[in-house]
Design goal:
Elements lengths: L2 H14 L11 H13 L12 H14 L4 H23 L1
Length: 94
């Protein structure tokens, strides 16, 4: 995917998660992937209040599906969440 596409997705991600700090000198793809990883790992919560990867994935998917984003953007965001959730599971299984 091109940089412009990631910029658009990042803007849409910001609309869904409006209280997330997503400012960085990184490329839009890196910012988006880092934000999704932090969300799936529940790094924005207090350690005692953290949810499991499955719970966070379910909540993120639900939030994306209930948003007003285009179907294409929803599919791409969910695919990114799937890809990164798989990466987290692989990392945790080592």
């Amino acid at each position: 995917m091109e940089t412009e596409a990631y910029e658009k997705l990042l803007d849409e991600y910001r609309m869904i998660w409006n209280n997330r700090r997503l400012e960085s000198a990184q490329e839009p793809e890196e910012i988006l992937r880092d934000a999704i990883l932090r969300d799936l790992r529940d790094e924005n919560s207090h350690p005692r209040a953290r949810k499991s990867l499955k719970d966070k994935f379910f909540l993120a998917t639900k939030r994306i599906m209930e948003s007003s984003l285009s179907t294409e953007s929803k599919v791409i965001l969910i695919q990114l969440h799937l890809e990164l959730a798989d990466a987290i599971q692989l990392e945790d299984s080592k």
